[in-house]
Amino acid sequence: MELQAGETLLVSGATGNFGSAAIAIAMAMGAGRVLAAGRNAQALSELVHRFGQRLCPVHLTGDAEMDAAAMRQASPQRIDAVLDFLPPSAPASLARTALMAVRPYGRTVLMGGVGMLGGEDLALPYPWIMRNLITVSGQWMYSREIIPDCIALVRSGLLQLEHFALAEFAIEDINHAIDHASTHAGAFNLTVVRP
Question: In the prediction, which pLDDT does 34 show?
Answer without folding.
Answer: 97
